[in-house]
Specification:
Order of helices and strands: EHHHEEEEEEHEEEHHHEHHHEEEHE
Distance between the termini: 20 Å
Shape: elongated
Helix content: 25-40%
Radius of gyration: 25 Å
């Protein structure tokens, strides 16, 4: 399993210029690759291979006056941009054939210099390294200052420099996690839990625990409205508009960071305390089209479930997702009678069959756990971790070999 460890970096003025040059060159090569393949498609010819694109768009292009500035950045950055284009086409074709899981993926599109997120990737071939003073030395960029909030558990295989919409820079390291070592950090337990996600409370557990919803967006809404109003009054193309746009982006980034931190802490707590976890497959897209759209997006259920899923695979826990049409809010957890649908304002109800008084969310959490069958399978063998995309690691510091920074 691969994980990402992200750290804030602080390039100086010269390094910012060099990074902007690298972002631009990688974007141009990516767009040239898409243009070359689209031209081949229109002409009815087979797609050029990555080797052909590398020769024509990088090696030969550097010899021309129009693309001579490609030599000013590391060749690894340009090669990785070609690989990104290749991956984008592969995902698109696999989505068309139905062999790719998840929602449909569209055809690759051209990148813009005005995109909110810019990134370049350096693999081991680029010979990047971490100096003895803790700086990240990148080819043709220099030694960039890094804020090491924690230590790396292993030697990274690559590093991606990311610039977000809030004008912040991050170094994202990819490492290979050791499943055996991860399992020793979280010993097995016989506890299981069902989770009912909601808006009044972010989550209600089957043991009766209620976790309040932080509502980060709602709490920052007044500040966001003021910043957005100031942005709308600035003249387009002016420097004051750029400053106002940056202010809005930083306000949104603060909200997103706080929400992600909350999701990481809660998901890690649930994974560490329970061997089996059951959740309901919510129709987030459907709920996002209702009057509750802002509150649904503010909760971030999909991000939270994604964290639970990959952490369960990493630490050998059992993660079960039940169908969204399971009547968890209509079924009595005591006698199993389906008592019919109820409006959202009904938070407590009495079963007509056995007379039990139920809290709506707690009753639903118990039914989620029962429907997942965790009560009967709590002691079964843990799930074997599978191959999943590299995820951003959870909050906290972990020990690592003393030679990890010498990569």
């Amino acid at each position: 399993m691969q994980l990402r460890y992200a750290f804030r970096v602080y390039p100086d003025a010269g390094q910012r210029v060099a990074l902007a040059r690298a972002f631009g060159c990688a974007r141009v090569v990516f767009n040239d690759a898409i243009r070359a393949r689209e031209d081949a498609r229109r002409a009815g010819q087979p797609f050029p291979t990555v080797a052909v694109l590398s020769r024509t768009l990088i090696t030969e292009a550097k010899q021309t006056a129009e693309r001579a500035w490609l030599s000013e950045v590391s060749a690894v950055v340009l090669q990785q941009s070609l690989r990104d284009a290749e991956t984008a086409y592969r995902n698109f074709f696999n989505s068309l054939k139905g062999t790719r899981k998840g929602p449909k993926v569209g055809a690759p599109r051209f990148k813009s210099r005005k995109d909110a997120r810019q990134s370049v990737r350096f693999t081991a071939n680029a010979r990047w390294r971490v100096t003895g003073s803790g700086r990240l030395c990148l080819p043709k960029i220099g030694a960039v200052k890094v804020k090491w909030s924690r230590t790396l558990p292993a030697t990274p295989s690559s590093v991606t420099i990311v610039k977000d919409a809030a004008d912040r820079y991050f170094a994202s390291f990819v490492i290979d996690a050791d499943p055996a070592a991860d399992r020793t950090r979280m010993p097995a337990t016989d506890r299981t839990v069902g989770i009912d996600l909601g808006l009044t409370h972010f989550a209600v557990l089957s043991d009766g625990t209620k976790i309040d919803s932080p509502r980060f967006l709602r709490r920052a809404e007044k500040k966001l409205k003021k910043a957005q109003r100031e942005l709308s009054r600035k003249q387009k193309g002016s420097k004051n508009r750029d400053k106002a746009r940056l202010k809005v982006a930083r306000a949104h980034a603060k909200v997103a960071d706080a929400r992600r931190e909350f999701h990481h802490q809660l998901s890690t707590k649930l994974i560490s305390e329970n061997q089996g976890i059951a959740v309901e497959d919510l129709s987030v897209k459907g709920l996002a089209r209702t009057r509750l759209a802002k509150s649904v997006h503010d909760a971030g259920w999909a991000s939270f479930i994604g964290m639970l899923t990959y952490k369960a695979k990493r630490y050998g826990r059992t993660m079960v997702t039940i169908g969204r049409f399971e009547p968890t809010s209509q079924t009595c957890s005591t006698c199993g009678t389906v008592d019919g649908p109820k409006p959202l304002n009904v938070r407590e109800w009495i079963c007509t069959a056995c007379g039990a008084l139920h809290d709506r969310d707690h009753n639903a959490a118990i039914n989620v756990k029962t429907a997942a069958g965790l009560a009967a399978s709590a002691c079964r063998a843990p799930v074997r971790p599978g191959v999943i995309p590299a995820q951003r690691e959870e909050t906290g510091s972990h020990g690592f070999p003393t030679d990890a920074r010498a990569a």
